[in-house]
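Lab channel / #folding
Pinned by the channel admin:
"Please post every new chain as: sequence first, then the structure tokens as a reply. Keep commentary short and put observations after the output so the thread stays searchable."

First post following the new format, from NK:
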Amino acid sequence: MFHSFHSVILLWLGCTWCVCKEMSDSVLQQTLDYACGAGADCGPVHQNGPCFQPNTVRAHCNYAVNSYFQRKGQAQGTCDFKGTATVSASDPSINGCSYPSSVR
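Reply from TO:
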């Protein structure tokens, strides 16, 4: 109940994140590599970084595409990555790793 209510409030406020869709690790790795090479702050997902755990391609991809999306001011089209990512009103922050968000 709280999670749904929290999501509704964030949506009302306009808080949005970019997250990777459920796809194969090889596809998500390509998205991760692109986002990191195109301006995302990927330092936090490097080993010993605050967002390294969980050490999965999808978790690292989520952080990278969201960083790119936020750095581009949540501009239209900056959370697509050839169909591998999508905009979400649910905060993907996990295990003490805070994903940045901007209120639109």
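NK: Residues 1-12 have pLDDT under 50 and may be disordered.
TO: also worth noting, Residues 16-103 form one domain.
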